[in-house]
Write a structure and sequence with these properties.
D-Maltodextrin-Binding Protein, domain 2; 4-stranded mixed β-sheet; 2 domains; disordered N terminus; 3-stranded parallel β-sheet; 7 strands
Protein backbone atom coordinates (compact mmCIF):
# COMPACT_ATOMS: atom_id res chain seq x y z
CA UNK A 1 0.00 0.00 0.00
CA UNK A 2 1.06 3.57 -0.60
CA UNK A 3 0.99 4.35 3.11
CA UNK A 4 3.66 1.71 3.70
CA UNK A 5 6.11 4.02 1.95
CA UNK A 6 4.84 7.21 3.53
CA UNK A 7 4.10 8.82 0.16
CA UNK A 8 1.18 11.20 -0.10
CA UNK A 9 -0.95 11.98 -3.14
CA UNK A 10 0.67 15.40 -3.28
CA UNK A 11 2.96 13.73 -5.80
CA UNK A 12 0.12 13.59 -8.34
CA UNK A 13 1.23 14.53 -11.82
CA UNK A 14 4.84 13.45 -11.36
CA UNK A 15 4.63 9.71 -11.86
CA UNK A 16 3.74 7.95 -15.06
CA UNK A 17 2.60 4.79 -13.31
CA UNK A 18 3.73 3.95 -9.81
CA UNK A 19 2.97 0.51 -8.51
CA UNK A 20 4.10 -0.09 -4.91
CA UNK A 21 4.92 -3.65 -3.99
CA UNK A 22 5.70 -4.93 -0.51
CA UNK A 23 9.33 -5.93 -0.44
CA UNK A 24 10.31 -9.37 0.82
CA UNK A 25 13.37 -7.93 2.58
CA UNK A 26 13.65 -8.93 6.24
CA UNK A 27 15.53 -5.79 7.30
CA UNK A 28 14.00 -3.14 9.56
CA UNK A 29 11.14 -1.47 7.69
CA UNK A 30 12.12 1.90 9.14
CA UNK A 31 15.64 1.84 7.73
CA UNK A 32 15.53 -0.50 4.71
CA UNK A 33 16.12 1.17 1.32
CA UNK A 34 13.17 1.68 -1.01
CA UNK A 35 13.82 0.29 -4.49
CA UNK A 36 12.33 2.04 -7.50
CA UNK A 37 12.51 0.18 -10.81
CA UNK A 38 11.87 1.56 -14.27
CA UNK A 39 12.48 0.73 -17.91
CA UNK A 40 12.45 3.96 -19.94
CA UNK A 41 11.52 6.60 -17.37
CA UNK A 42 14.62 5.92 -15.29
CA UNK A 43 17.03 5.82 -18.25
CA UNK A 44 19.56 8.71 -18.08
CA UNK A 45 19.61 9.14 -21.87
CA UNK A 46 15.85 9.71 -21.87
CA UNK A 47 16.54 13.18 -20.42
CA UNK A 48 13.18 13.53 -18.74
CA UNK A 49 13.43 16.39 -16.25
CA UNK A 50 10.41 15.18 -14.34
CA UNK A 51 12.23 11.95 -13.43
CA UNK A 52 14.71 13.77 -11.19
CA UNK A 53 11.89 15.77 -9.58
CA UNK A 54 9.95 12.56 -8.94
CA UNK A 55 12.91 10.91 -7.21
CA UNK A 56 13.38 13.96 -5.01
CA UNK A 57 9.71 13.96 -3.95
CA UNK A 58 9.85 10.27 -3.07
CA UNK A 59 13.15 10.65 -1.20
CA UNK A 60 11.74 13.44 0.96
CA UNK A 61 8.63 11.37 1.67
CA UNK A 62 10.51 8.26 2.83
CA UNK A 63 13.36 9.80 4.83
CA UNK A 64 15.38 8.57 6.63
CA UNK A 65 15.13 5.59 4.27
CA UNK A 66 17.19 5.82 1.09
CA UNK A 67 15.71 5.66 -2.42
CA UNK A 68 17.62 3.42 -4.82
CA UNK A 69 16.72 3.75 -8.52
CA UNK A 70 17.33 0.83 -10.85
CA UNK A 71 17.05 1.06 -14.66
CA UNK A 72 16.47 -2.38 -16.15
CA UNK A 73 15.34 -4.08 -19.32
CA UNK A 74 11.81 -5.41 -19.62
CA UNK A 75 13.18 -8.87 -18.79
CA UNK A 76 14.96 -7.39 -15.79
CA UNK A 77 11.72 -5.83 -14.63
CA UNK A 78 10.03 -9.23 -14.94
CA UNK A 79 12.66 -10.74 -12.66
CA UNK A 80 12.49 -7.89 -10.15
CA UNK A 81 8.73 -8.27 -9.81
CA UNK A 82 8.78 -12.07 -9.58
CA UNK A 83 11.48 -11.95 -6.90
CA UNK A 84 9.74 -9.05 -5.13
CA UNK A 85 12.75 -6.78 -5.34
CA UNK A 86 10.74 -3.69 -6.34
CA UNK A 87 8.88 -1.44 -3.93
CA UNK A 88 7.83 1.06 -6.60
CA UNK A 89 7.71 0.60 -10.36
CA UNK A 90 7.39 3.38 -12.93
CA UNK A 91 6.24 1.99 -16.25
CA UNK A 92 3.99 2.62 -19.21
CA UNK A 93 0.38 1.50 -19.20
CA UNK A 94 1.13 -1.62 -21.22
CA UNK A 95 3.66 -2.94 -18.71
CA UNK A 96 1.32 -2.08 -15.85
CA UNK A 97 -1.52 -4.09 -17.39
CA UNK A 98 0.75 -7.08 -17.80
CA UNK A 99 1.37 -7.29 -14.07
CA UNK A 100 -2.07 -6.63 -12.60
CA UNK A 101 -2.24 -10.26 -11.51
CA UNK A 102 0.86 -9.67 -9.35
CA UNK A 103 -1.06 -7.38 -7.01
CA UNK A 104 -0.03 -4.03 -8.47
CA UNK A 105 -1.97 -0.96 -7.53
CA UNK A 106 -1.81 2.06 -9.83
CA UNK A 107 -1.15 5.19 -7.82
CA UNK A 108 -0.41 8.11 -10.12
CA UNK A 109 -0.38 8.93 -13.81
CA UNK A 110 1.84 11.38 -15.65
CA UNK A 111 0.17 14.20 -17.55
CA UNK A 112 2.06 16.90 -19.46
CA UNK A 113 1.28 19.83 -21.73
CA UNK A 114 2.09 17.68 -24.72
CA UNK A 115 0.12 14.70 -23.39
CA UNK A 116 -2.67 16.17 -21.22
CA UNK A 117 -4.86 13.06 -21.49
CA UNK A 118 -3.13 9.85 -20.31
CA UNK A 119 -5.81 7.79 -22.07
CA UNK A 120 -4.61 9.15 -25.42
CA UNK A 121 -0.88 9.37 -24.82
CA UNK A 122 0.28 6.12 -26.43
CA UNK A 123 0.06 5.21 -30.09
CA UNK A 124 1.56 2.90 -32.69
CA UNK A 125 2.60 3.98 -36.17
CA UNK A 126 2.59 1.27 -38.84
CA UNK A 127 5.15 1.68 -41.62
CA UNK A 128 5.32 -0.29 -44.88
CA UNK A 129 7.59 -0.59 -47.89
CA UNK A 130 6.32 2.15 -50.22
CA UNK A 131 6.86 -0.07 -53.27
CA UNK A 132 3.97 -2.27 -52.11
CA UNK A 133 1.35 0.46 -52.34
CA UNK A 134 0.05 -0.11 -48.83
CA UNK A 135 -2.09 2.80 -47.65
CA UNK A 136 -4.51 1.28 -45.14
CA UNK A 137 -4.55 -1.43 -42.51
CA UNK A 138 -6.64 -3.55 -44.85
CA UNK A 139 -3.87 -3.34 -47.46
CA UNK A 140 -1.54 -5.14 -45.05
CA UNK A 141 -3.51 -8.39 -45.41
CA UNK A 142 -1.32 -11.19 -46.72
CA UNK A 143 1.91 -9.24 -46.12
CA UNK A 144 4.54 -9.78 -43.45
CA UNK A 145 5.18 -7.54 -40.45
CA UNK A 146 8.02 -7.12 -37.95
CA UNK A 147 6.86 -6.63 -34.35
CA UNK A 148 8.72 -6.53 -31.04
CA UNK A 149 7.51 -9.31 -28.71
CA UNK A 150 4.36 -11.47 -28.68
CA UNK A 151 3.08 -9.94 -25.42
CA UNK A 152 4.00 -6.31 -26.14
CA UNK A 153 1.04 -4.04 -25.41
CA UNK A 154 1.76 -1.12 -27.71
CA UNK A 155 3.67 -2.94 -30.43
CA UNK A 156 1.66 -6.13 -30.80
CA UNK A 157 -1.57 -6.27 -28.83
CA UNK A 158 -2.83 -2.85 -29.91
CA UNK A 159 -2.27 -3.76 -33.57
CA UNK A 160 -4.10 -7.06 -33.14
CA UNK A 161 -6.94 -5.23 -31.40
CA UNK A 162 -7.30 -2.95 -34.44
CA UNK A 163 -7.61 -6.02 -36.64
CA UNK A 164 -10.19 -7.61 -34.37
CA UNK A 165 -12.23 -4.40 -34.45
CA UNK A 166 -12.26 -4.74 -38.24
CA UNK A 167 -13.40 -8.39 -37.96
CA UNK A 168 -10.06 -9.89 -39.06
CA UNK A 169 -8.29 -12.81 -37.40
CA UNK A 170 -4.95 -11.31 -36.26
CA UNK A 171 -3.32 -14.75 -36.22
CA UNK A 172 -3.96 -15.35 -39.94
CA UNK A 173 -4.10 -11.77 -41.26
CA UNK A 174 -0.35 -11.48 -41.94
CA UNK A 175 1.58 -13.93 -44.08
CA UNK A 176 4.33 -13.89 -41.46
CA UNK A 177 5.05 -12.16 -38.15
CA UNK A 178 8.66 -11.63 -37.16
CA UNK A 179 9.31 -10.84 -33.50
CA UNK A 180 12.56 -8.89 -33.46
CA UNK A 181 12.65 -7.38 -29.97
CA UNK A 182 12.26 -3.88 -28.63
CA UNK A 183 15.01 -2.21 -30.70
CA UNK A 184 13.11 -0.25 -33.40
CA UNK A 185 16.18 -0.07 -35.63
CA UNK A 186 16.14 -3.85 -36.10
CA UNK A 187 12.53 -3.71 -37.24
CA UNK A 188 13.18 -0.82 -39.60
CA UNK A 189 16.17 -2.65 -41.06
CA UNK A 190 14.00 -5.72 -41.66
CA UNK A 191 11.74 -3.60 -43.87
CA UNK A 192 14.69 -1.98 -45.65
CA UNK A 193 16.29 -5.29 -46.56
CA UNK A 194 13.01 -6.94 -47.59
CA UNK A 195 12.83 -9.36 -44.69
CA UNK A 196 9.47 -7.85 -43.71
CA UNK A 197 6.92 -5.82 -45.68
CA UNK A 198 5.92 -3.64 -42.73
CA UNK A 199 6.67 -2.80 -39.11
CA UNK A 200 5.58 -0.43 -36.38
CA UNK A 201 7.09 2.38 -34.35
CA UNK A 202 5.77 3.96 -31.21
CA UNK A 203 4.50 7.43 -32.00
CA UNK A 204 6.79 8.84 -29.29
CA UNK A 205 9.86 7.30 -30.97
CA UNK A 206 8.84 8.67 -34.37
CA UNK A 207 8.28 12.13 -32.93
CA UNK A 208 11.66 12.17 -31.18
CA UNK A 209 13.42 10.96 -34.32
CA UNK A 210 11.71 13.61 -36.43
CA UNK A 211 12.85 16.35 -34.05
CA UNK A 212 16.45 15.13 -34.22
CA UNK A 213 16.55 14.86 -38.02
CA UNK A 214 14.11 17.56 -39.06
Amino acid sequence: MLSNLGISLAMAGFLLTACPLISAETTDAQTAPVYLYGVEFTRPSFELKIAKETYEVIQRAIEPRKLIVRNVTTAGLDEAIKKRKADIVIANSGIYRRYLQNGWRDVLTLATGVQPNPDQAVGSLILANKKLGINTIEDLKGHSIALNTPSAFQGTLTIKKELLDRHYDPDTFFSKILYLGINPQKRLEAVRNGEADSTFLSVCYAERHKRKTG
